[in-house]
User: Which sequence fits this backbone?
């Protein structure tokens, strides 16, 4: 039996590490992360205001940056996340976000999907009849994939390089796998890019699975760097699914 996901799994792979130059020290106030201090340092450098004349703590400083719309300093702080338990349907939408983003995704040409997992569409969760019908379809598709790979390996038996032969078989057979097939992807983006993506994908108009994932990513990033993402508010939307709203648009 394949594994079925009903929630995304998110891991933080990398976060900023800030090394303050000794000859340009900042008068830091309040609690902050390295990413937040990096953004504050970059902003203060523009005006050589390292002495902090307004006596703002770091998160107040970043909040003012967001309010003023000077989002370029947020581009210095990059966060890398591993997203698992998400469908290829979701990643087809996710990779449309290009500015400030980098992606590395599991390849179906090289990876054997004979034991692939699948992501249950949020819209059918809780309806046993719909889940049973969907499950039968994805299990049938996977069985067809396995059979096709086996037959294609025989068909291309004349290819001496077995690794290449497997790739040829899998790249052809993958066509029968559904968009619900689970995938894994490493996503790196700067804080400004993450904000833009999250504003769009946590909204009530976003597709349900990517919205669910975006809300989960938002919660992770709010723990990582509250100053960058504190103006997002998660709430229960009229469709009974979580969404989020943002205070400062298009920073």
Assistant:
């Amino acid at each position: 039996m394949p594994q079925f996901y009903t929630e995304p799994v998110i891991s933080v792979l990398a976060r900023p590490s800030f090394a303050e130059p000794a000859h340009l020290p900042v008068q830091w106030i309040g609690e902050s992360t390295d990413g937040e201090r990096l953004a504050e340092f970059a902003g203060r450098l523009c005006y050589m205001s390292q002495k902090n004349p307004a006596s703002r703590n770091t998160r107040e400083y970043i909040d003012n940056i967001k309010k003023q719309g000077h989002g370029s300093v947020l581009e210095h702080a990059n966060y890398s996340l591993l997203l698992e338990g998400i469908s290829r349907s979701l990643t087809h939408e996710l990779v449309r976000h290009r500015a400030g983003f980098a992606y590395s995704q599991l390849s179906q040409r090289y990876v054997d999907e004979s034991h692939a997992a699948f992501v249950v569409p949020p819209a059918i969760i809780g309806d046993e009849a719909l889940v049973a019908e969907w499950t039968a379809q994805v299990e049938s598709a996977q069985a067809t994939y396995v059979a096709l790979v086996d037959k294609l390996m025989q068909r291309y038996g004349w290819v001496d390089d077995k690794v290449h032969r497997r790739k040829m078989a899998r790249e052809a057979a993958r066509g029968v796998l559904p968009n619900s097939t689970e995938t894994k992807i490493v996503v790196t983006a700067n804080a400004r890019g993450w904000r833009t993506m999250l504003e769009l994908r946590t909204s009530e108009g976003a597709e349900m699975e990517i919205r669910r994932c975006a809300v989960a990513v938002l919660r992770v990033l709010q723990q990582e760097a509250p100053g960058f993402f504190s103006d997002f508010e998660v709430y229960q939307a009229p469709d009974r699914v979580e969404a989020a709203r943002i205070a400062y648009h298009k920073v």
Q: What stands out?
A: DSSP finds eight helices and eight strands in the chain. The longest helix spans residues 128-155.
